[in-house]
Amino acid sequence: MVLIKLTIKHLIFDRIFLVLASLVLLFASVPVFSYFSMRQLQEISITMSLTLNSFILLLMTLFGGTLVIWRDIERKYTFTVLSYPITRTSYYLSKFFALILVLFFISIVNFAVSAVVIKITASFYKSSLPIIWSNIFFAFVMEFLKYSLLLGFIFLFASFSTSFFTPVFSSIAVFIAGNASQGIYDYIMKSSSELSHLTKLAAKIVYYILPNFSSFDLIAYATYALPLHYKSIELTFIYFLLYLGIILSLGVAIFNKRDFS
Amino acid sequence: MEAIKVDNLKKTFKVKLKQVKALDGMTFDVKKGEIFGFLGPNGAGKSTTIKIITDLIRADSGNAYINGTPSTNCKARASIGFMPENPQYYDTLTGLDMLLFSASMFGYKDAKTQAYKLLEEFGLENSAKVPLRKYSKGMIQRIGFAAALIHKPDILILDEPMSGLDPIGRMIFKKKMKELNNQGVTIFFSSHIIPDIEDICSRVVIVKDGKVVKDFNEVEIKYLTTSGFEIVVKNDNNTNLEIGEKEISKGLYKINCDKGNLINTLELLKDKNIEIIDIEPIKKDLEDVFIEILNS
Amino acid sequence: MKKSPIVLTIIFLTAFVMFFPNFEKDMRNRPLFEKLGYTPHGKFYRAVLGEFRWFVGDYLSFKSIIYYGGKADKIAKRQYKDVEFYNLYTTIKTSILLNPYNEDAYYFAQAAFSWIGHAKDVNALLKYVMKYRTWDFKIPFFLGFNYAYFLKDYKDAAIYYKKASAIAHSPLFTDLAARYFYEGGRTRLGIAYLKAMVKMTRKESIKKVYETRLKALEGIYKIQQAVEKYKKINSKPPKSIEVLVEDGLLKKIPKDPYGGRFYIDKNGKVKTTSNLAFKKEDVKNGSNKSR
User: Fold this and answer.
1) For B226-295, CATH number?
2) Is residue C250 one of the residues assigned to a domain?
3) Which of A13, A80, A211, B122 could form a disulfide with B142 if both were Cys (CB 3.0 to 4.6 A apart)?
């Protein structure tokens, strides 16, 4: 608990964090940018708000993750912190959940700001589509979950690597692969006749292993008021919990074995 | 029960595919109430041993215990205060916050009075509200020592505590260590600088190549590390002593004599009625001590 | 205690593997945003961008619209060589691939490309978008118009007009089709379409394009009516428009907003020297396919 508080405090006073947090100001550009649209100001404002949120969370995850765990190891803060009577597990998880809390808080702020700018923009021009706030809300929730999962990966990579590049670039690679996995899987499964059984099996295994980030993407649902299937959200949530459980416990297991020399 | 017990620790690191043996059967114990010096050249395995005791490194085999609790159990660290070599702390914290954070990690909620007391003792009272990133290396060392003390531990483990300290800092540290020891605190510290160890230690273990080479008490270490004496005498008549004296200023001579030759030299001086101004032991450097130990 | 994370990992892994088929099935049944082959370029972007694809799609159509707005003068003067039509088309295509829900993109494609001889390509885009924007009557409306007006495929046109009517819950489009297809009323079909577009369009620069074209078509329609009357009276087509004015069938000769001059050809058809920008040749020369 103390460590969570300290981590948050430490993070919030960091300059990089402040720069990233100031990106919230970009929301002011949403109505301006939407105004360029021919006839879908409201839609653009929703897409843009969600995209901005996603962008801020992405940067926050990458930088926050490295600030919180990698830098602790690199600057040898671990020598002092881990010599306190706490387990490594609680250190690792405290750090993780401290950052999750920060991401959560940022998501809430972004959602509140988004609601305002969407309202303003939607008042400029009557859209043929309704604004379904629950869809927008769930899209925000899903983005938060998605980046929580990505953060889990950063922590996993940081649990064994000593360099700055491994966690950051591996996480970016996971991010891209996780975004593409569904599309590529669909593509391979569709071109059924040309590919051998073995290739398909390999594709399936990779599909199981890679995170499926596209399942967290509800932007189209939020923007174009598409009917949301709550069953899908439920399944994605379970998927999130299990996947996060795997990478966190794996990360803890590796971190527990690690030598800090 | 020993304060710290280290039993046949072995550890091999992989450095770029090469196996480097850091510890090779390290065994010793620290009794309660001792000031225990852990002496050895760089790379002897001092830091590795300390990190195994504080559970930062896991041994390949062997065990370490703190007050009888295995070091891999995090509760073992509840009774120790630890300062790593060249300590690093969250540098956005102020000195005071760092101490309070340290205290809270040991479950002390209200440590403000204690924190201010320590800040004053270490001469940091004016920097209490200054973030650590603005501290000098010596100040970091002092705040680190203070942080290791804030929860009033029974055992202090200090890795090279006096490296990078100015003479005044060294003095404060040594004084504080003695004071704590008088209060019953066991102190375990490593160093590669002989005078630091010799001044305050009640026991010294010398390590090399990952194992203990020699275990000395206070008196033995003084004997071992002294190679000879430097005697300053007043010789106004410029009598020729024929024992290699050198004039250092008018009428003042400096004589170097071997460890075993002190009595003879003193008798000679007495016979010739020469006034002795000062006798000071000449300390060997660590390398020489090792050569001597390994030869014996 | 020390082993528990590993045990946990195994427990989670087992649960995950057991759960995954449910998840996979659900993902298969979700409306997929990735069907139909377009440029591999767009596909690559889509794979890499993740959820940023939606906004990048929006952004690309903005870019196109702003570019087009900047070239409005040149387009009005039919200086097509100065407009990168090919790049513009690929950009819009990528935009639609990234965000098929984007209304601006297909709307712009219809406005910018259908009139310059690319109705077929625009129709392909529209059909793609129609899979996603199932509630949007404008897409079949555009498709129907393009089939009828540009491609003269009245059968397909009727199908799409019917679809538009069904989505909009209005018989208007079916009526339009019935009224104009078989009367040879191509000009009136164009006028009806343009009037609808002027009403629907918010962006001033695009609205102007429609208004200009509408004005031209209305002029042609007026002359055509006069020609029909003349034919009834004289049993032959008039030699020139001036004749129609002299005979009092036309109050005055309408102006061609494209700067051309209306005339009547040998077969009695109304034409203009500006060609109303309908001619394909200009466009082909203007496009930059070589790049």
Assistant:
1) 3.30.70
2) yes
3) B122
